[in-house]
Amino acid sequence: MSENSVIKIRDLVFSYGGPTILENIQLDIEAQEFVGMVGPNGSGKTTLLKIILGLLKPDKGSVEVLGKPPNQAVKEIGYMPQFTPFSRNFPITVEETVLMGRLGKTSRIGLFGKTDKELAAESMEAVEIINLRKRPIGSLSGGQLQRVLIARALTCNPEIMILDEPTANVDMKVEKDIFDLLKKLNEKITIIVVTHDIGFISQYITKVACINRTLVCHPTSQLTGETIENLYGTHVHMVHHHHEGESHH
Question: Rounded mean pLDDT of the chain?
Answer without folding.
Answer: 82
